[in-house]
Write a structure and sequence with these properties.
206 residues
């Protein structure tokens, strides 16, 4: 069980550099969302969006200082936050920050699909040095995440433009986070079935 938990943690798509780094990286990823949520509740969507841009920039800087690198997914997310958040503030239209979520997830799905079709699976590239899995398993994991990200992108469109703003903010901050965590655990369970089993039998010659 302990081995499975470690492997499940490792399946996160941001390519964790080590198990020990996981809690800190999770915290760094979550802080901008908490700031966004808190300022939305205390002020409005525009103050929250401005704070999200600033907090995301600080997050990138802190990540680079601590780990000497920033993952591509983090850079893509920050770029989208800066562009669509900036348009939200400049045009005073919250539709832009709503579309940002869908575009980010769509880009993740597109990136995973294209990299796999080109024979350079992004997920395998991130995790393949640490996990030994059959090629068909990498393929299944990749397409599962493509479908997941695509569903998140589509669901965000519905929640953002058919439901009240309060519902969308809760969905963005907590709903998508819970969904991603749950899907990560499911991926971990699936991977665990195909991991090479340790030979725990005692050697008779010893």
């Amino acid at each position: 069980m302990k081995r499975f938990v470690n492997e499940a943690y490792f399946v996160r798509l941001s390519a964790l550099s080590s198990y020990e780094d996981y809690p800190m990286k999770q915290l760094l990823d979550f802080i901008p969302l908490i700031i966004f949520f808190a300022l939305y509740k205390l002020q409005d969507i525009y103050v929250a969006t401005g704070a999200l841009i600033i907090a995301s920039a600080i997050q990138i800087a802190i990540t680079y200082v601590i780990y000497k690198k920033v993952e591509k997914m983090q850079l893509i997310t920050f770029l989208m936050v800066a562009i669509f958040g900036g348009m939200t503030l400049f045009l005073h239209d919250d539709n832009f920050i709503k579309w940002k979520v869908t575009i980010v997830y769509a880009l993740f799905a597109f990136g995973l699909a294209i990299s796999h079709l080109m024979g350079k699976s992004a997920i395998k590239g991130m995790l393949g040095k640490e996990l030994t899995l059959p090629e068909n398993v990498w393929t299944q994991i990749t397409w599962a995440w493509v479908v997941f990200f695509s569903l998140c992108a589509g669901l965000n469109v519905y929640v953002a433009f058919q439901l009240p703003l309060d519902v969308w903010v809760n969905f963005k901050v907590f709903g998508l986070l819970a969904a991603t965590f749950g899907f990560t655990l499911l991926t971990g369970f699936y991977i665990y079935k195909y991991l090479p089993k340790d030979d725990n039998k005692a050697n008779p010659s010893e």
